[in-house]
Design goal:
Shape: globular
Structural class: alpha+beta
Oligomer: single chain
Radius of gyration: 16 Å
Distance between the termini: 29 Å
CATH class: Alpha Beta
Strand content: 25-35%
CATH architecture: Roll
Length: 160
DNA sequence: GCCAACGTTGGC
DNA sequence: GCCAACGTTGGC
């Protein structure tokens, strides 16, 4: 029996939208819009459910790594930007009756006592199979196992 | 800024 | 359906 993944890692470029930006957002929540990759969309549409825990990962910055904890804050629903002609994420080929791009809301849950850098992840044998350390992995929405999630919390100094 | 790895597009 | 060209990602 295949069970759906329940733990996640989301990438964001901090100079575009950092964990602190999410923390300061209204209700600490934002729609995870602008994802235009089918694999990432499929995870949001088919597997993510409200309450799933998320590692919020900063990429393309001085110190890449997990910057905070978040959670899925809605069920999946269509990304409004795909129908906004003024948005860079406008998709003229998306049919309003059958939207192509589906997202979930994301809510910041807690800051970490210390961030878990990519360097630290690479140095931790128990995280050798995490997506972010696989060569060429560019997926911005990806599952992590519950065990990997726990190890990251441990490295972050989170007491359970 | 470089560049390898990857995804998407479009001609055929 | 193939695959070259192109655009993007993301660590370094």
């Amino acid at each position: 029996m295949t069970r759906r993944p329940t733990h996640w890692l989301l990438k964001s470029e901090p100079h575009v939208f950092s964990f602190d930006d999410l923390w300061r957002a209204k209700k600490r929540t934002t729609p995870w819009d602008g994802v235009r990759n089918y694999q990432a969309r499929n995870f949001m549409r088919d597997s993510m459910r409200a309450g799933d825990p998320i590692l919020y990962y900063h990429s393309s910055c001085d110190e890449p790594g997990v910057a905070g904890l978040a959670e899925v804050a809605s069920e999946p629903y269509p990304d409004a930007l795909q129908f906004d002609a003024d948005s860079k994420y406008f998709d003229p080929k998306s049919d309003p009756d059958d939207p192509r791009w589906i997202l979930v809301d994301v809510r910041a849950v807690r800051k970490l006592p210390r961030p878990v850098t990519l360097k630290a992840i690479k140095a931790e044998p128990r995280l050798a199979k995490m997506g972010v350390v696989q060569k060429g992995s560019r997926l911005s929405v990806q599952p992590v196992t519950a065990a990997q999630f726990r190890v990251v919390l441990e490295l972050a100094g989170v007491e359970e």
